[in-house]
Design goal:
Structural class: alpha/beta
Distance between the termini: 16 Å
Strand content: 25-35%
Strand order of the largest sheet: 2-1-3-6-5-4
Helix content: 25-40%
Order of helices and strands: EEEHEEHHE
Number of helices: 3
Shape: globular
Amino acid sequence: MIVRVTAEGAVVQDADDLGRLHLQTDLDADGLRAALTTTGVGEPIDADNAWLDLAVLRSTAQLVATAPDWADQWAGMTAYAEKKGWLSPDGRSVQVHIER
């Protein structure tokens, strides 16, 4: 799954590919911070990583997902992220890599 972030907002692409969750953007650090916080999608951690709100991500991704077992794949993805230590301490966000 790709979360594409622009100054206009965030769009989920490839929602059925839950094994490759990452964020893509052409924005600089300040622009990305503004876009993520304004839309409620998440917040940057550093230059290479960001937190994405799992509830917002799930609700957005479900709108474009087509795989019949998508909910099971989502559960598997979040369990894997938890096992790898990629969930926030409160479990509400997932850490993703930023690709520019």
